[in-house]
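Good morning,

Attaching, inline, the backbone tokens for the sequence recovery test we're adding to the shared suite. The designed sequence is right after.
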């Protein structure tokens, strides 16, 4: 009778060993999947960090661009003022020479009249 029970127990042990091997294989597969998920998590974290850094850099770039526009508009106004002054210069010179010529003509007439009457 012991033979009968011995065989059954050996079969149960073989089944249990097979199930244990299957469980170890499934455990290994799950561990690999967890490792893969860990790698994906690390990649997502790195991507999030990079996006954060890019956002900060874009913010600084916008500030720099805003300051550049302000400086450029000031320089542009200064250039416009200088051009207006340069364009006005010949007109001012013409007015000066016109006054000088008229003054000399009047002085010449007065000298001529004074010379005639004296």
């Amino acid at each position: 009778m012991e033979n009968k029970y011995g065989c059954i127990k050996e079969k149960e042990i073989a089944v249990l060993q097979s199930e244990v091997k299957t469980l170890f294989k499934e455990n290994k597969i799950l561990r690999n999947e967890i490792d893969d998920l860990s790698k994906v998590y690390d990649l997502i974290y790195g991507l999030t960090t990079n996006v954060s850094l890019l956002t900060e850099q874009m913010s600084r770039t916008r500030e720099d661009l805003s300051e550049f526009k302000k400086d450029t508009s000031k320089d542009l106004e200064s250039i416009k003022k200088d051009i207006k002054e340069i364009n006005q210069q010949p007109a001012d010179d013409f007015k000066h020479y016109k006054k000088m010529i008229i003054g000399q003509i009047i002085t010449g007439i007065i000298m001529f009249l004074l010379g005639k009457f004296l």
